[in-house]
């Protein structure tokens, strides 16, 4: 019985650890640009560049101005009305 509990604990521990990391990710801050025409939530890189995610609703995130995340993304072939940054598709996101 102890071995079973130990194995289950290890499985949970390691499966949760995978969810908490985004290999090759970049650090960003969440910015609320809803005051600008056609804009919404964007990510701001450390150099000030902005990323406009096209799939932000795919993730259960606590959308708070200035919150820090690590994300991995791919360029998205999408048009933006906001036009403050590059449109991207988020592939991984972790709250910092």
Categorize the overall geometry: globular
Overall mean pLDDT stands at: 85
- CATH homologous superfamily title: NigD-like N-terminal OB domain
* Gap from first CA to last CA: 37 Å
Largest sheet: 5 strands, mixed, barrel
Explain this structure.
The protein contains one helix and five strands. The protein has 96 residues and is of the alpha+beta class. The protein has a single domain (24-95), classed as Beta Barrel (OB fold (Dihydrolipoamide Acetyltransferase, E2P)), CATH 2.40.50.500. 15% of the residues are buried.
Secondary-structure topology with pairs:
Elements: H1 2-19, E1 26-32, E2 41-45, E3 50-53, E4 68-75, E5 86-95
Parallel strand pairs: 3-5
Antiparallel strand pairs: 1-2, 1-4, 2-3, 4-5
Task: Please describe the structure with a list of short key phrases separated by commas or semicolons.
single chain; 96 residues; alpha+beta; OB fold (Dihydrolipoamide Acetyltransferase, E2P); five-stranded mixed β-barrel; 5 strands; 19% helix; globular
Short structural summary:
The chain is an alpha+beta fold and 96 residues long. It has one helix at residues 2-19, and strands at residues 26-32, 41-45, 50-53, 68-75, 86-95.
């Amino acid at each position: 019985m102890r071995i079973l509990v130990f194995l289950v604990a290890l499985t949970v521990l390691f499966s949760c650890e995978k969810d908490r990391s985004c290999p090759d990710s970049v650090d960003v801050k969440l910015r609320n640009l809803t005051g600008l025409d056609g804009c919404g939530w964007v990510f701001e890189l450390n150099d000030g560049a902005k990323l406009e995610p096209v799939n932000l609703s795919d993730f259960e995130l606590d959308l708070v101005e200035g919150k820090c995340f690590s994300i991995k993304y791919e360029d998205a072939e999408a048009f933006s009305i906001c036009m403050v940054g590059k449109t991207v598709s988020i592939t991984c996101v972790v709250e910092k």
